[in-house]
Amino acid sequence: MLTNFLNDFFNIKAAIIALITVGLITVMTAMTYYLERRALKRSRHFGTLVHLLEAVAVVGSVILLRQTFWVLNSGDIVSWGYAIAQLTVLLFSLYLMRNLAVEVVNVIMPIAFYAQGMYMGHGGQYVAVFISMTLLLTGAIIYISRHRTDVMDTEWKYLLLQLVYGGTWSFIIWSVHPFNLIYTINVLVVFVFYMWIIRFFVKRLTNLIDRLDSLDQAINYDELTGVRNRANFDSTTVGVFGVYQKHPSIPITMVMFDIDHFKTFNDQYGHLTGDAVLKHVAQHFKQELFKQTARGQLFRYGGEEFVIIFRGVSATDAQRIVTGIRDTLQQNPVEANGQALAVNVSFGISELRLADDYFDAWFKRVDHYLYQSKKAGRNRCTVEGVTVALS
Description:
The chain is an alpha+beta fold. It folds into two domains: 2-220, no CATH class; 230-389, Alpha-Beta Plaits (2-Layer Sandwich). The chain is built from 14 helices and eight strands. It has helices spanning 2-9, 12-39, 44-72, 80-96, 100-119, 127-146, 148-153, 155-176, 181-220, 230-246, 262-269, 271-292, 315-330, 359-375, and strands at 252-259, 296-302, 305-311, 334-336, 339-341, 345-351, 380-383, 386-389. It starts with a helix and ends with a strand. This is GGDEF domain-containing protein [Lactobacillus sp.]. Keywords: Membrane, Transmembrane, Transmembrane helix. Residues 250-386 form the GGDEF domain.
């Protein structure tokens, strides 16, 4: 039995599968990191699509492993090496991809495995074992999905759940292909040890990603308001200007706005209140933009001035969006020192034009329209040179 065990886990085929498994885990990690970051900045529907793509990636990884084993073993996939590779991908996805679709995949996989075994004429006499192990496995999946961070940080919980997850799967596999139970226990030990190594690298990868997020936050986001900063605005507009030159039929609109009489908040109520007003306005526009459209990016340009870049949105539609947000802003005043402080804003709006040979021409026009709104008495919106009062 020891010879069979060594032959199964210490050979060139096992090394190939191990490398493929590590590669799949790396690709899944990179994909999840990339998609989840973008899902935070897009609509809820986009987030749902991301979760479905993650679930598809998990299923695709399992299928790829199966086909690899099929080729390496001349059409035979009855192998504990394949089982451990599959379990590693499935369990890793639970810790990495925090969504219901992946949890459902983890629950469906043992059912699909047993159904395939039944179709091939195996496992009929062990239905009770399969049902009890599947229920226990489902409980472990639910617990892991609800307490990921705690499990990753607590070694005994991590070890216990690996034993439960791997053990239940082992008995599910055994119910279809009755291997020697002592051999199965040895395999379970290998699986737990393998997942322990995965945990080591996952924790360090997570820490690295967190540091990169912190660095990205510091470089691209304003510390006070939490929205994109001037540096991010400068880099974003370079790309926007380049895209427009290639696709001029797609409208790109810039909205610049600032807080009316902002100096009064600082002079009458103090700079802490002024900071509170800035944060309130920035977060209100950010949240409302997120609810209404995925095509607008908000930046704090400087002081009390903010800029929104709308891609694929005309100046007229941009006006409708931002004035609607302004109306809800008036319904949600800033609370400071027991007082409700109403906040008004003024806008300048213009689309990028073919005649704009360089970015500054567009920016100066929008800035001029904002100045025009303020000169007309503030609480105004100027769109392509036409100023209207906001009620």
